[in-house]
UniProtKB/TrEMBL annotation:
Residues 470-629 form the Helicase C-terminal domain. Keywords: ATP-binding, DNA replication, DNA-binding, Helicase, Hydrolase, Isomerase, Metal-binding, Nucleotide-binding, Primosome, Zinc. One of its GO terms (molecular function) is zinc ion binding. Residues 208-374 form the Helicase ATP-binding domain. Zn(2+) 1 binds at C433, C436, C478, C481. This is Replication restart protein PriA. The gene is priA.
């Protein structure tokens, strides 16, 4: 009988699988599939996943011997295993890299499976005694919180006290806290009752409850219409059937408050998965999902990879959000993969948004998804009034018209809060010499044809490239003419903050953007600082997403004009979503809200359609245009990108790829190839970037062609020297 070898997927950029003889003393069997195995690879050691068994031919060269399994059971099984194979085929990506992406980092690195016993913490006797005399700071704050909680499981700490481990260690060293076993701990108090669902919510909830097997729903509800209540109802029903629920949310939407609301309402522990957790915490949640002890998992993009052996429901909140698409490595789309998984598992999947993506709307129109609509705000909240402010010829201060400033004054005087939205962070988008016209450009991102300005920060004293992160002090004199007339041009959030802080000295003026708010909890701290008192928030798109600000009465939209004339075919969709979402922040509770939108293009068709007809009027027009132009969702795209210090190699590589693709399909109607052309950003961080866009009206045509040529493309001589990638269903072209 021929000996059996193990076939492995390894995290390497090669489309092949690798054969090894089993580790000493092990007889390979079907139960090995999905297990982690340590193997020698070249001079190194690697962790791979067993994908199957192969007979080892006696006359073939001897195989290398595997070193050992990491655990006695598979880590990837069942539906997730099958879906990941599908994903690798769909993205034309190496299976080993896809499997590695799906695993939590600790497991990928070969660390042991996490311990998911329920650990918790409590204050010791000494802790209670010492508490009043502790110095102010994180340990004291944590100790006070623990005092209020009594005993607290680590899972709860992860959610309510992000970053608790360091202060806990310091308390532990001093003997003020002790670790306890919480297996017997009653997890969460009895669920709180939510508001009674209104008619539309109830109809949506009933439809989801009635679903049997795979059933995709688009929950299309205006901001504040109570979509979350519908999700909660569906999750409660899923739990009542004894099944697991997965909820995907955009990066910025996953706040401790949101998790707490879910826990209180569902009455079970909610397991979080987001970038604010460390690798061990993430691995614990992943593994708790795998063994079924995690019933509700709420997470950002990569949570789409949690194993769900007992799944009952998937919810994707803000399904249009761009954070669901992974922009490097394995370029998956979490929403799309979630739908594939739901289909494989035969369960309902709910996509919620006030501004659904055109892909999803088209799926709904074609009857592939059931449409559930919430057209009115829940409770007593009224939709905001939108006014366009024509600022042509008006004197502007920090880019704001006098009417805008007086509207802010009135809102503040009436006791309200104001959100000023500006889609540009920094002080000014450009530093210009008024004497000779020189301007500061990023040396690493500019080309002779396309200079990339550096953004002025810190009142114009520092320069920063928002594309590659390059920073330097601003010159004090013009490098070209030595003149001193360097002036920041245009306006960013910092400049608006400077003006408003000077004009509104009586209320807090808080800037929220990636510059001021690096940490996840910082955002909430900003909101807490403001509380319900009158004040001004200034921010970029970070502020556009689902935060509930009940006292917000005015949304001032400043400077969206840059977005109105962009070349990207998706720019209209993105701008409309942003405008509608940001406008939706106003008047969430009992206070009526107003949106003031200042522009130099009051007659722009997009604004006209949005303001008179709303997002759906825009979407209908846009879908018709996309159809006529054969653009997604009516065509299917993949982009092959390549970059290098010099432009020749990427161009050659893409030209060869194009040649291969042309050889596959003689029918030019079925598939179109554009390029090789410079990428929209032709140079970044010193790399010249080229792209080849491949499009087809039929998904099948595209995938057959890619399936045929990708193995050859990987073996091209340039493929090893260049940075290159294939992006199936690319969203940024
Ligand atoms: P969305 O996610 O659609 O923007 P939310 O679910 O956050 O909306 O609900 C908006 C607000 O309306 C929340 O404060 C919520 O508590 C409240 N709300 C939702 N449904 C109801 C209801 N049926 N009755 C009263 N208030 C509700
Ligand atoms: Zn000059
Ligand atoms: Zn740069």
């Amino acid at each position: 009988m021929p000996a059996t070898a193990l076939q492995l997927a390894l995290p390497v950029p090669l489309p092949t699988l690798f054969d090894y003889t089993p580790p000493p003393g092990h007889m390979a069997g079907p139960g090995d599939v999905g297990r982690r195995l340590r193997v020698p690879f070249g001079p190194r050691e690697m962790v791979g996943i067993v994908t199957g068994l192969v007979p080892s031919a006696p006359d073939a060269p001897p195989l290398r011997e595997a070193l050992g399994f990491l655990e006695p059971c598979p880590v990837l099984t069942g539906e997730l295993w099958d879906s990941l194979h599908w994903l690798a085929r769909y993205l034309h990506a190496p299976l080993g890299e896809v499997l590695a992406t799906a695993l939590p980092a600790t497991l990928r690195r070969g660390e042991a499976l996490p311990d998911i016993a329920d650990h918790g913490w409590q204050l010791t006797e000494a802790g209670y005694t010492a508490l009043p005399s502790l110095r102010a700071g994180a340990p004291r704050q944590l100790a006070e919180w623990l005092q209020a909680q009594g005993q607290c499981p680590e899972m709860r700490l992860d959610i309510a006290q992000p970053g608790w481990r360091a202060p806990m260690r310091s308390l532990h060293k001093r003997g003020l806290v002790e670790e306890i076993d919480m297996t017997m701990w009653p997890p969460v108090p009895t669920p709180q009752i939510g508001p009674t669902l209104n008619h539309a919510q109830q109809a949506a909830a009933d439809a989801i409850r009635a679903a049997n097997g795979y059933a995709p729903f688009l929950l299309d509800g205006v901001t504040g219409s109570g979509k979350t209540e519908v999700y909660l109802d569906a999750i409660a029903d899923c739990l009542a059937r004894g099944r697991q629920a997965l909820v995907l949310v955009p990066e910025i939407g996953l706040t401790p408050q949101m998790l707490a609301r879910f826990e209180q309402r569902l009455g079970v522990p909610v397991h979080a998965l987001h970038s604010g957790l460390n690798d061990n915490e993430r691995a614990r949640t992943w593994w708790a999902a795998a063994n079924g002890s995690a019933q509700v998992i709420v997470g950002t993009r990569s949570a789409v990879f949690v194993p769900l052996p007992n799944a009952g429901l998937i919810v994707i909140d803000e399904e249009h959000d761009s954070s669901y698409k992974q922009f490097d490595g394995i370029r998956y789309h979490a929403r799309d993969f979630a739908i594939v998984r739901a289909k494989t598992m035969g369960i309902p999947v709910v996509l919620g948004s006030a501004t659904p993506s055109l892909e999803t709307l088209q799926n709904a129109q074609a009857g592939r998804y059931s449409m559930l609509r919430l057209t009115e705000r829940a409770g007593d909240a009224k939709p905001p009034r939108v006014r366009v402010l024509d600022v042509r010829k008006r004197p502007l201060q920090a880019g704001m018209a006098p009417e805008m400033l007086s509207a802010i004054r009135s809102a503040i005087d009436a006791g309200g809060q104001v959100l000023v939205f500006k889609n540009r962070r920094g002080y000014a988008p450009m530093l210009l010499c008024h004497d000779c016209g020189w301007s500061a450009h990023c040396p690493r991102c500019s080309t002779p044809d396309k200079p990339t300005p550096m953004t002025a920060h810190a009142g114009g004293k520092r320069l920063q490239c928002h594309h590659c992160g390059n920073r330097r002090p601003a010159p004090s004199a013009c490098p070209d003419c030595a003149g001193l007339a360097l002036e920041p041009q245009g306006n960013g959030t910092e400049r608006i903050e400077e003006l408003l802080a000077a004009q509104f000295t009586d209320v807090p003026v808080i800037r929220i953007d990636r510059g001021s708010t690096q940490r996840r909890d910082a955002l909430q701290q900003h909101f807490d600082t403001l509380g319900s008192q009158p004040g001004i928030l200034i921010g970029t798109q970070m502020l556009a997403k689902g935060h509930d600000l009940p006292n917000l009465t005015l949304v001032a939209v400043v400077g969206i004009d840059e977005g109105l004339y962009s070349a990207d075919f998706r720019s209209g969709e993105k701008l409309s979503q942003l405008l509608v979402q940001v406008a939706g922040r106003a008047g969430r509770a009992d206070k009526p809200g107003e949106v003031l939108l200042q522009t130099h293009h009051p007659d722009h068709p997009l604004l006209h359609t949005l303001i008179n007809g709303g997002y759906h009027a825009f979407a209908d027009e846009e879908l018709a245009l996309r159809d006529a132009a054969s653009l997604p969702p009516y065509a299917h795209l993949a982009v092959l990108r390549a970059e290098a210090k010099h432009v020749d190699a990427p161009t050659r590589f893409l030209a060869e790829a194009k040649h291969l693709l042309e050889g596959v399909n003689a029918d030019v109607q079925a598939m179109q190839l554009h390029g090789p052309l410079p990428a929209p950003m032709p140079r970044r961080a010193g790399y010249q970037r080229m792209q080849l866009v491949i499009s087809a009206s039929q998904r099948k045509t595209l995938h057959q062609a890619l399936g045929t040529v990708m193995p050859t493309i990987r073996t091209l001589p340039d493929a090893r020297k260049l940075r290159w990638s294939l992006d199936v269903d690319a969203v940024d072209l």
